[in-house]
Amino acid sequence: NGFPGTRFGSLFLTLAVPNQGVELDTLEQRIYDEIEIVKGGSITQEELDRARTNIRAGIIRGLANNTGLALNFASTYMTKGDWRDVFLQLERYNAVTLEDLQRVANQYLIKQTRTVGATVKTDS
């Protein structure tokens, strides 16, 4: 896909759209709060299992028809160098542990490496 970091897994990208009346600063702080929850080890096994289920369902839905197969194979070949990697994704997602999440969050989701951008609609 067109997101940065898809060829070489180096970015953690969060996209958020505030509800009407919610300031960007409030939304940004809420994202940081969620990151701190992960860093503190407060994610539960149930939450991890739910995320795995959602990821698995998304992958399977993406393979449900010829167009989806072609797009997934081409995208995976482009980003990973081997179309067969589509079928290995589930194994890698299932191998992630709560400890992995906490360790990686503490190592990489730090203020010093953060870049924040916002697209704001003008009044004109």
Largest sheet: none
Kindly identify the CATH topology: Cytochrome Bc1 Complex, Chain A, domain 1
The poorly predicted ranges are none
Helix content: 40-55%
Which CATH class? Alpha Beta
Strand elements, count: 0
Shape: globular
- Taking the alpha carbons of the first and last residues, their distance comes to 32 Å
Our estimate of the beta-strand percent is: under 5%
Instruction: Name the CATH superfamily assignment.
Output: Metalloenzyme, LuxS/M16 peptidase-like
Mean pLDDT: 90
Q: What's the helix count? A: 5
* Topology order in helix (H) and strand (E) letters: HHHHH
- Provide the CATH architecture: 2-Layer Sandwich
Radius of gyration: 17 Å
Structural class by secondary-structure content: mainly alpha
How many structural domains does the protein architecture include?
1
Could you characterize the architecture of this molecule?
- This protein has 124 residues and is an all-alpha fold.
- It has one domain (24-113): Metalloenzyme, LuxS/M16 peptidase-like (Cytochrome Bc1 Complex, Chain A, domain 1).
- Helix content is 54%, strand content 0%.
- It has 5 helices and no strands.
- The chain has helices at residues 24-39, 45-62, 66-80, 89-95, 98-108.
- The longest helix has 18 residues, at 45-62.
- The two termini are 32 Å apart.
